Structures are given as C-alpha cells and as structure tokens.
Amino acid sequence: MFLRCTLRRQRVNRQYSTSAIPTLGEYLKRIGECDSGEGGTNAFVSIDSTQGLVSPTTASKSLAGKSIAIKDVICTSALPTTCSSEILRDFQPPYDATVVRLLNDEDATVIGKTNCDEFGMGSMNIHTSHGSVINPFQTSSSKVPWRKREQRSAGGSSGGSAAAVAASMCYAALSTDTGGSTRLPASYSGIVGLKPSYGLISRWGVVSFADSLDCVGIMADRVSRIRSVFDVLAQFDTLDPTSIPIIHRERMSFSIRSRMKDLGDNGQKSLQGLVVGIPWEYFPAEMSQYIYSPFNTVLSVLRQLGASIKPVSLPSTRYGLSAYYVIASAEAYSNLARYDGIRYGARSSPEEGSPILDAADVYALTRSHALGAEVKRRILLGSYALTAGAFDNYFLQAQRVRNLVRADFDRVFRISNVLAGSSASTEARGAVDIILHPSAIRTAPSLMPKSASAAEGLQVYVQDVLTVPASLAGIPALTVPMGYAEDDGWPLGVSVVGQWGSEELVVNVGEAIEQNLRIHDETS
Amino acid sequence: MLRIPVGRATASRCCHRRDLATFASDPRWPGWQAVIGIEVHVQIKSRAKLFSQTRTAFDQPPNTQVSLFDAAFPGTLPNLNIKCVELAVRTALAMGSDVQKRSTFDRKHYFYPDLPSGYQITQKYAPLAMGGQVFIGQGRTVSIEQIQLEQDTAKSTKSISGTVTRLDLNRAGAALMEIVSRPDMRTPEEAGAYVRALQALLRAVGASDGNMEQGSLRCDVNVSVNRKDEPFGTRCEVKNLNSVRFLMSAILSEVRRHTALLDAGCPVPQETRGFDQDRAETFLLRTKEDAPDYRYMPDSNLPPLLLTQDYISAIAATMPELPSALYARLQSQYGISARDTEVLMSIESGSDMGYDGEAEKGSAVNYFEQVADGGDPKVAANWIIHELLGQLAFRNESFHTNPVSVETMRELLALLHDGTLTGTSAKTLLRHILQTRTQIPLTQLIDEMSLRTASSTSLKSLCEAAVSALPRESDVIRKGNEKVVMKLVGHVMKASRGTANARAAADMLREILLPPKL
C-alpha cells in the first residue's frame, strides 16, 4: 500500500516538487522496495552499491550527486554489460562509454544498469535474459496491493530505464533508441523520453544494434532533467566517426536560436507564432480511439499558448516501418556477427564425443544457444535482406525509402537541415516548426501469457510505426506524458519532433506541454 | 579475396574487343592465347592500423598489438587512419589512376576465426581510385582496374593435430590496398614482370615493403585461355601465391590444365583454386556453386571519404621519385652502367621510405649518391657494389646494418685515389671495419694496422729482399723473361701485407733486374 500511495502521489506532484532530490541512499532503498520480488519492476540488472561511498558532492558540477541508471547496452567498466543476452552473460568491459565518462566528469553517480530487450531488439522488454520488466504503473481505480497490480509491459527496448524512472528509483536514466526504444517505453510508463538527433551524442561504448539508427536516449520524470543531462552528453567525440562536427552543431544552434528569438522566447516559454504540424499519416487504423481526446487537449493547450496548428502530409511514412525493419535487421545481422564466443562472452562447449569439424561449428553452437529468439529472427531477416539476390529489392529499396522519409521532413520544416547539403537548402521550405503526434498507437500492452504469445508475431512491430520515421530521418523526438486513456486509465505520451539539431526548441515545447497540461487538467 | 566487382564485366568486354585484334599466342601453347589478370593485396607501411591506433608491428609476440577495436569488442568504433589514405593516394598517383573525390567503405561478411568482427571493412561499391597503368618493360603496360582500401585479417594457424586453431590478432585490422589489374597479361613472364614492377613502384612511394615472402604483398591470379577469334575463356582464380616464381608456375600450370581440358572437348568450369608448391600445380578449392555470399553492405559507421583536389595535389607535389625516373637519372647523371644501376636499386627494396611514407634516406641508391658526390661515381659504384655489398652479402648482413658511414666510405675512396691506400689495403680496411664495427678514425686505423702505402725507400728494400729471396726467378728475369716479374711482385705484396703499390713494385723490380731501356 505504501508503494502504491507513493507512486500515485508522485505522479501528481513530481513536476512541481520543490523538495530536495533524493540521495543515492534513498534511491537504493527505493530500489530495494520496488525492484525485486513478486510484482517488482525488475528494472535493474546490476547495482553499484560502492558508488555511494565515494560519491563526490562538488556542487559546482551540473550533475553532482545525481543518480543515473544506465541501460545495459552501454558499456561501464564498474559494472557488467550484458545487453540482456546470454552471450554476454558475464561480460565486463574494461572501458566506459563516452556518455558514461561525461556523466562521471559531471560528478553524476551511475546507480546501476537497467534491463532491456536483448541488444535493444524488442518493443516490450520481454526478450531479455533477465526476465521481463513489469511496468510500475497502477491505475487510481485499482484496489489491489501494488505488487498484485495488473502486469503490463514497460515497453521496450529500454523498459528497465523507463521503469527505473517511473518508480522513482533514479534521477534520470540513459536509454538507447533505434526505432522507438526510448519513446515507446516512456509513453507506456508515463514519463519523458528524448531520442536526440543522430550524431549529437557519442555512440562510442554503446553496443551497436543498427549503427545508422542507434542513438543514446535520455529518460526522466520531467523535461528539465532531460535538458540537464542532454546538455552534458551532447558533445563532439573523436572516438565516434558518426559524431557530428562542431561546425554543424553551431550552425544549427544559431539558426534555431534566431527562430526562437523570432518567436519571442525570452525565458517566458511563450509559443506565440509557433507552427505545429500534425501529420495525417500518424493516425493509422491500428491506433486506439482513446488517444484522440488527450491529443486534442494537447492541441488546445498549444493554441492557448499562441501556437497555430497546421495539418501536414508525410506521405512516405507508410513505407517507413518496412524500410526500418529491413535496414535495422541488416545492420543487426552485421553488428552481431562478432558474438562468436571466442574473444569474450559465453561459449558453448560441444558435448563430449560430438563431431566438431571446424570453427564454424563452434560458432553455430554458441550462437544457437546464447542468442535469443527475437535476435535470431532479426539476424535471419537481415541475413536474407543482404543476400546477393535480395539486396537490391530489400536493402537498397529500404535506403531509398529512408531518403524519401528524410525528404518528407525536410519539406515540411521551416528550418533547413544543416546536414542535407546545399542542394536541399535552396528548395522551398515548409512552414512548420515542430511536428506533433501521439507517441504510440496504444497504452502499455499486457504481459499476460495470452497477449505475450500474440507479441511473438509480426504485428508486435506495428507498435513502432509512429516512432521509426524520426529514427530513419535522424531527427530529435521527445515524448512527454499527455494524460491517461479513458478506457483503461493507463498513461499516454505525445511526441514533439523537430528538424535535425533542434533539441532546444523541441525540449522547450515539451516543457510547455508538461507545465500547461496540469493547468488544463485542473481547470477541466 | 575473391570478388567480382560490378564494373569488371564492362572492363572485360572492352578489353575483349581490343584483344581480338591483338591475339597473342605463345610457342608453348600454339593456337591458344592465355589471358591473365592479377589481384594484389598490399600491406600498407603505416605505423598504425587502418581503423585503430594500434602499431603495425607484426614481428611482436602474438596478440600484443591489439586494441579493443581490433578484437571487435562491443561498442568500439572505427577511426580512419589518414596516413593509410595518403599512401594509397600516392600509389594511385604513381600509376596515373583517377583518385576518387568520394569513396565509401563497405562490409564483407564471413565467419572465420581470422575475422574478429565477422566482417572485413573494404571498398566494394566506391573504391579509392579507378584506372591507371603499370609499365612492365619491353614497351608493355598493364592497365589497373581499381585500388581500394581494406582491413587485413588476423593470422590463424592450425595445430598439427588439426584440433586447435591458434589466433594472432596482431595483423587484424592492418591496412591493405587491393590493386586489381585488368586482364592485360598474356604470359607468366609478363605476370611476373607486372608484380616486380608493382613492387618497385610501391617501395619507391613508400606505400609498402611489397615483400611476397613476408606476406606484405599477396597475389591472386585469374587465368583463362581462348583460341584466335574467340572470346575470352572461362577464368579460374588461383589464390594466395606468395612468390613471383610460384605465381608464374601457377599460371603455367593453369594454362596447361585449361588447354588440355579444351583440347579434350571439356569446358573449363569456373573455379577458385589453390597452388601446391611441391607439385607445381593448382588444385580445386571451390566451384562457382560453392562461392560464398559475402552479404556486402555499406558500413554505416564510416562516412564517405571525401578528398579535395588540394589534398590530392599536395600529395602529388611531394611524390618521391618513381623507379623509371630514378633508373634513367642515375645513368645519365653519374654515367654508371645499367647493370650497376639495377643492382643499386634492387638492394633491400631500394626505398628511402619509412613508416607513413616518411623519407629515411637509408637506401643503397641514396648511399651511392652521397658517396659519389665530389668523387668518381664509377669508382664509388664499383666499391659499393663489389666490395661493400659483396662483403655484406658474404657476411650475411643486410644493407641497413651497414656500419660504414657515407663519410668513411668517401674518405676511404679519397685515400685510395691519392695513393695513401692501395686497393688491397683499402679492401683489408673495409673488411676490418665490417668485422669489428670500429669507430676509430680511418687515418688512425691505417697507422695502427700499418696499411699506409709503402714509401719508395721501403719499396726498394722490399724489392731487394724479394730478389735475394728468389734468386732463380730473378735470374730468369735478368735473361729477359719479364713475365716472371709478377712472381716477385707477389712476394713483395705478401711481405708488405698489401701496402705496396703493385705497379710501382713491378717498375722497381724491372729497374733493379733489367738494364735500362735505351
């Protein structure tokens, strides 16, 4: 009962709490209470309990004393990095990812590593060697003890990070996002999640799923925390060849600031003159009807703040999901080829007397045993898409679709894409500052066995339909809570999507929604 | 690596048209034309690997030159070593290739213990350079299809029992250039000449040691045969040839195998073959049906490699002298023979290039040029080639360990020239330095070893001693048989330990023994 009460109260009050941020000890206590046992969230896979002893408190550092949870696909030298895979069961990298180093440099405390779908592949955090993550959320109408609440997914693949934030077990969490792995769990868990522009945050030390799509994401229970962590992490890194050079960052920063100046942003978070695009294509048949009402509420809040709403069309969106699964699977096939059990990770030994012919047999044995079903499915899919006979029809075709998806966004945004080169910038630009759409087609799916078996099929991929376009285009997308579905009372998220490098604007709009939805809730 | 680039088919067609007109048979297989193309993998002589900071020191103990990236640890990313690009661009420019302003990196996948990440980063779809040619002598040139950068593999060795595979990752991720020729060669000898010309070129620009025995240059050869007025035959690829001799032998064996098959009315199946050095014949590795699908895909970690014209021009402006230019210059500038020029240029790869293409000035040619400066170039060439290199070879030492500095060699030749040293004592002195690696100044050494040329007074007493030691021979000379003078000269030389000037001794002996000529 204590937990339920805490969670509910927190849901109401957290954005406006003026009380001090909990200490590491308080977070650890919280983890002890919520994470394990019956109905526990199962968010953490390892905890660094030694951290508190040396926790520095240099108040001048921006993240001093802040406890951050790290998704288990991000390498940490102090804790194992398993990627929720049997094949990396005991893997402890001798290095920290750049993002971990940057957090440490700002005196943040890495509190522990969080559960996720194996190598980031999944939308429900059920494909994991550590067991499924259970969403900590409980509806206000529920009468059972918190541990007996309805078991729903926290979303995936960063379900552990989402649950850790939603159950107040950390200040913020790092996640990753390849096709929605930050935004979907954030939406399902009622928290804020940012998938930054591709190339702004270093991927060095982040275990690759699909290199051209992978981004480090940030999750927190309020937008201001996302901003404080993002500002620390968004640094050029020579170790990451896809890290965007400083010149492009500065050019984009200049154009976004001058646009925000036009909009009269002088710290008041006014949205006067902001043009919000609503894409027709983001309301597919599969979308729950209970999403419309909270979404309309968000639109009226934005209008009240002075924004204008403009319908836009992103026609290539309908092909995005298929293209995404071809590209992501092909890259996964390639990136996961290194897990052979030879240099690190688990190795399956052949049974005594079984005929081992060559190295390939040992690889096959190890990979068959130690990779999970979903990972194997995607490896096979990617392997097929790259065969000489299928390459043109699948991989190259998907790359073409990807370019069309990018072009769709560039056409509607007012600010041009600094990465698109000179040819694109001369084209007539759109009028939209940001795009707004529901983050998911539904609330968190159930973890009950009946639904879980349905989640094995391909229809589970449909959950990503709204999130993959921003991934394909490499543009920033922030999901913020927009209320609860009328039918089941579970959280829903709304996504603010901007041009490449426009995080500052996207985060401001997200914060405006966050702060003004409350007023609206109370007045309605 | 086996590879059939998209562009190659087109290239073969155009060569095909040209070569129908210039059918080139060979007395060894009358009526047949052999068509040969070569793919060469060259280890780039860079300090660090292609995508990591690890040293390329292959002589180190196994698995000591390995970074996290080389071992394909999760979360590591490639970082292109621009020095490798520079050396490949030098090579391309030396061949007259068209350096591409934009090239890209791709992944080639296969599971094998020598490939830690399960893929090799290469340049399949947009290589670094296209076209170009290599001059192979006798007015022949071989056209180049393309040059691409790629990663080397690790070394895997099987235990004798065959149950254990040992891995050494030192080589994993080192930089290679793949240089693909067009099918322009018609005989094993031309193929050999092509590889030798390529070696000289690579060494001159400092791109590679180009050493086949040590594996810094490896060849795969494509061979087909056809009759006059027929299109090219089906080609077979023979992989991993590690000497020019084996390359030529493998081609010979393939041509014979193909013509025998065709003479018997059997088509040649497209195959990948290996070469058995002991039996000097090729053997089947895999058929076309077994050819692996490498599932090529663009590497999304590596952005396109964009080179500006300024960058390419800067490299062109600082290119080292190419072998053909050097060969011509040495003969015209110093008047040394073609034979001596070839010897000088062949010593230890003939290159002045260290790692990353840095000039080191350590070659025999450079040594010669410095020694010849201010002296007699022909004498310098003669002494360097026949005495210095000869002695080093005799002592089984390499040129780069040569203890005789340019200054010492110059001084030695100057002392020889002014008569302070006789040829014999100069040779003695050189051998002494090679043997003891002494740092003592030459003049001091000459005195310590009593090598100074005998003065005329001491020469006279040496000659008189010889006359009294060999009375019978002296009588023969007195009777007019001058040939016997040489025997006494030998005695003088021996007694003087080479310090006597032989010609002066002969003159002196004649003066003593013969009546003055009127």
Automatic annotation (TrEMBL), chain A:
The reaction(s) catalysed by this protein are: L-glutamyl-tRNA(Gln) + L-glutamine + ATP + H2O = L-glutaminyl-tRNA(Gln) + L-glutamate + ADP + phosphate + H(+)
Q: Where in the cell is it found?
A: Mitochondrion
Kindly identify the residues recorded as the active site: K71, S157, S181
User: Which segments cross the bilayer?
Assistant: none
Coiled-coil spans in chain? none
The Gene Ontology CC terms held by the record are: glutamyl-tRNA(Gln) amidotransferase complex; mitochondrion
Domain Amidase: residue ranges: 59-506
| Keywords assigned by UniProt, alphabetized | ATP-binding, Ligase, Mitochondrion, Nucleotide-binding, Protein biosynthesis
Which Gene Ontology molecular function entries are recorded, alphabetically? ATP binding; glutaminyl-tRNA synthase (glutamine-hydrolyzing) activity
Residue ranges for the region (Disordered) are 137-160
Question: Quick one: a GO biological-process term for this protein?
Answer: glutaminyl-tRNAGln biosynthesis via transamidation
Q: What is its EC number?
A: 6.3.5.7
Q: How does it assemble?
A: Subunit of the heterotrimeric GatCAB amidotransferase (AdT) complex, composed of A, B and C subunits.
PANTHER family on file: GLUTAMYL-TRNA(GLN) AMIDOTRANSFERASE SUBUNIT A, MITOCHONDRIAL (PTHR11895:SF7), TRANSAMIDASE (PTHR11895)
Q: What does the function comment of this entry state?
A: Allows the formation of correctly charged Gln-tRNA(Gln) through the transamidation of misacylated Glu-tRNA(Gln) in the mitochondria. The reaction takes place in the presence of glutamine and ATP through an activated gamma-phospho-Glu-tRNA(Gln).
Q: Write out the similarity annotation.
A: Belongs to the amidase family. GatA subfamily.
Q: What is this protein called?
A: Glutamyl-tRNA(Gln) amidotransferase subunit A, mitochondrial
TrEMBL record, chain B:
Subcellular location(s) of the protein: Mitochondrion
Any one GO molecular function term: ATP binding
Q: What is its main location?
A: mitochondrion
Quote the SUPFAM superfamilies the UniProt record gives.
GatB/YqeY motif (SSF89095), Glutamine synthetase/guanido kinase (SSF55931)
Ranges that cross the membrane? none
Task: Give the UniProt entry's GO cellular component terms.
Answer: glutamyl-tRNA(Gln) amidotransferase complex; mitochondrion
Its UniProt entry gives the catalysed reaction(s) as: L-glutamyl-tRNA(Gln) + L-glutamine + ATP + H2O = L-glutaminyl-tRNA(Gln) + L-glutamate + ADP + phosphate + H(+)
Report the PROSITE patterns cross-referenced here: GATB
What EC number is given for this enzyme? 6.3.5.-
Keywords in alphabetical order: ATP-binding, Ligase, Mitochondrion, Nucleotide-binding, Protein biosynthesis
Into which EC class is this enzyme placed? ligase
Positions of the Asn/Gln amidotransferase domain: 366-513
- Biological processes annotated in GO: glutaminyl-tRNAGln biosynthesis via transamidation; mitochondrial translation
Function, in words: Allows the formation of correctly charged Gln-tRNA(Gln) through the transamidation of misacylated Glu-tRNA(Gln) in the mitochondria. The reaction takes place in the presence of glutamine and ATP through an activated gamma-phospho-Glu-tRNA(Gln).
Q: State the oligomer form and interacting partners.
A: Subunit of the heterotrimeric GatCAB amidotransferase (AdT) complex, composed of A, B and C subunits.
HAMAP family registered for this protein in UniProt: GatB
Question: What family name appears in the similarity comment?
Answer: Belongs to the GatB/GatE family. GatB subfamily.
Name it. Glutamyl-tRNA(Gln) amidotransferase subunit B, mitochondrial
Could you tell me which species this protein originates from? Hydnum rufescens UP504
